Automatic annotation (TrEMBL):
Residues at which ATP binds: G10, P11, S12, G13, V14, G15, K16, S17, T18
Gene that this sequence comes from: cmk
Main location: cytoplasm
EC main group: transferase
Name this protein carries in UniProt: Cytidylate kinase
Gene Ontology BP, a term: pyrimidine nucleotide metabolic process
EC number from the UniProt entry: 2.7.4.25
Organism placement in taxonomy: Bacteria, Pseudomonadati, Thermodesulfobacteriota, Desulfobulbia, Desulfobulbales
GO CC terms in record: cytoplasm
Keyword Membrane in annotation: no
């Protein structure tokens, strides 16, 4: 394969971030968290007071967007985000901001801007991109594509555990409802909906742990390399 690009897509709470960080470390590739970018934009538009129902206003605000990603400190930490010089790394990780990110991710000017930034970041290859549309829209030519899935109940449990580790106390029933709603938004939108690329390898992670998933991803990459 020419540009070595790994794409890892799937619904929320499936373990994409942890797995992507571990896989990128094992391969010595850069990790690109595209969800962090949508979260950053949601935060930015909120701070600017932009009405997200007004696509012209959204497009105008995006022209002044200055978004930078801070690399994850280790395999257990999230990628950070700096918006116009302000560190929003913690605020973007709340359940509220997850829903806000899902709402702005429907908008054409937002997708256009972030897709271009992501393609730029991956232009030299050796990247592990993680999100909802990295295998279908952002990097359709990627050599190694994966789609992770798990039941909504298992994904909600994983989310709750993650949020607890960050010190956020949340209700599991509420997180399950939000998980289902967010997936529905992401699967049913018209632009770049969440779906498995035809040539992606599907891994159901419901019954298998992170080490096992990483092992399968790395084995599949190795077999094709
Ligand atoms: O992956 P994460 O949960 O951080 O993503 C937050 C939201 O950003 C998703 O629910 C989805 O609406 C949006 N997103 C997207 N396309 C991507 C990555 C994330 O629409 N490639």
């Amino acid at each position: 394969a020419t540009a070595e690009i790994v794409t890892i897509d799937g619904p929320s709470g499936v373990g994409k971030s942890t797995i992507s960080r571990k896989v990128s470390a094992a391969l010595g590739f850069t990790y690109l968290d595209t969800g962090a970018m949508y979260r950053g934009v949601a935060c930015y538009l909120e701070e600017c007071g932009v009405d997200i129902g007004d696509e012209t206003a959204v497009a105008k605000a995006l022209a002044n967007l200055d978004l930078q990603l801070l690399p994850a400190k280790d395999a257990d930490s999230d990628v950070g985000v700096i918006i116009c010089g302000k560190d929003v790394s913690a605020v973007i990780r709340t359940p509220q901001m997850s829903m806000a990110a899902s709402a702005v991710s429907k908008l054409q000017p937002v997708r256009e801007k972030l897709t271009a930034m992501q393609q730029q970041a991956g232009s030299k290859g050796r990247i592990v991109a993680e999100g909802r549309d990295t295998g279908t829209v952002v990097f359709p030519e990627a050599a190694y594509k994966f789609f992770l899935d798990a039941t909504p109940e298992e994904r909600a449990r994983r989310r709750v555990r993650q949020l607890h580790e960050k010190g956020q106390i949340v209700d599991e029933t509420e997180i399950l409802a939000l998980t289902i709603e967010r997936d529905k938004n992401d699967r049913e939108r018209s632009l770049a909906p969440l779906k498995k690329a035809d040539d992606a390898l599907l891994i159901d992670t419901t019954e298998i742990d992170i080490t096992e998933v990483c092992g399968r991803v790395l084995a599949a990459v190795k077999a094709k390399r």
